[in-house]
């Protein structure tokens, strides 16, 4: 069966659209190996959820993790980083950045799906810190909840792109056969 010129154009457009959409959607995980003192979760028999959460919360008050970072700049159990915009360089170029990552690694190793009181995940906090310490327009904005709201808005167009891509595949298939 020979394909008409219109059918080939629709097929080509659908394939190009899908190729371009898929390339933008992924993001690499650049966390790297964990370092620092991570409290142990105990033996294999320790499965009490309350004890596991309690151990994860100990990471925020671990005297071996938070040594040099000023108390007011530290990540807390609520998922908040109270770093004033004018202290961004001090946070990002000093011990606070390293110690914040150590706390996140500590919590992640004890309870990988930990959710802060503000509903943020470890990934949300890492993304906020990365953006706040970056050189882009979000530099100095350590508001985790605000970043989560922006990120959820950005996910909606990706869902739309997937639906349009699927619709094009169905229409393209209908035109081809």
Q: What would you report as the Rg, rounded to the nearest angstrom?
A: 23 Å
Computed structural class = mainly alpha
Tell me the total number of β-strands. 0
User: Helix-strand pattern, N to C?
Assistant: HHHHHH
The count of helical stretches stands at 6
What best-fitting shape do the alpha-carbon axes yield?
A: elongated
Q: Low-confidence parts lasting 5 or more residues at pLDDT below 50?
A: 25-39, 41-45
Distance between the termini: 9 Å
Instruction: Note the beta-strand portion.
Output: under 5%
Mean pLDDT: 78
Helix content: 40-55%
What composes the largest sheet? none
Characterization of this structure:
This protein has helices spanning 5-25, 49-58, 88-92, 95-110, 122-133, 144-176. It is built from 6 helices and no strands. Helix content is 55%, strand content 0%. The protein has 177 residues and is mainly α. It starts with a helix and ends with a helix.
Short description:
The protein is an all-alpha fold and 177 residues long. 55% of the residues lie in helices and 0% in strands.
Q: What's the helix and strand layout?
A:
Layout: H1 5-25, H2 49-58, H3 88-92, H4 95-110, H5 122-133, H6 144-176
Give structural attributes.
mainly alpha; 177 residues
């Amino acid at each position: 069966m020979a394909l008409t010129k219109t059918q080939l154009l629709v097929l080509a457009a659908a394939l190009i659209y899908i190729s371009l959409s898929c390339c933008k959607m992924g993001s690499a995980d650049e966390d790297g190996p964990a370092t620092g003192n991570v409290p142990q979760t105990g033996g294999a028999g320790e499965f009490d959820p309350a004890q596991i959460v309690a151990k994860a919360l100990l990471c925020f008050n671990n005297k071996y993790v938070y040594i040099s970072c000023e108390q007011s700049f530290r990540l807390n159990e609520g998922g908040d980083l109270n770093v004033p915009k004018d202290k961004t360089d001090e946070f990002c170029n000093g011990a606070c950045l390293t110690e914040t990552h150590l706390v996140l690694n500590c919590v992640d190793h004890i309870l990988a799906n930990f959710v802060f009181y503000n509903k943020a995940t470890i990934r949300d906090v890492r993304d906020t810190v990365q953006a706040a310490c970056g050189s882009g327009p979000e530099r100095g904005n350590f508001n985790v909840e605000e970043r989560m709201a922006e990120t959820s808005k950005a996910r909606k167009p990706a869902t739309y792109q997937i639906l349009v891509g699927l619709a094009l595949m169905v229409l393209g298939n209908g035109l081809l056969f």
